[in-house]
Design goal:
Blueprint lengths: L2 H22 L9 H5 L7 H22 L15
Length: about 80
Amino acid sequence: MSLSSVEKRLEALESEVAALKRQLNGGRDSSRTWLDERWGAFANDPLYVEAMRLGAEWRRKENEKSLQRPKKSKKKRKNVRS
């Protein structure tokens, strides 16, 4: 195989890879992340605000539960020999 034919095949492969990347990205700019595209999607959405409030309330209650010390058991242990 000559050098020029290898170069032509390489160019064809590079352009095909670029086309596949564009197809995978759905035509989006690859410099933007998924977070950039979703940022602000729920702005002024009352259901989202309520969901965040409920989540924060649940986390607060779970945190309070984890900070409470368990009560010591007054039950005596039996002395068991093996």
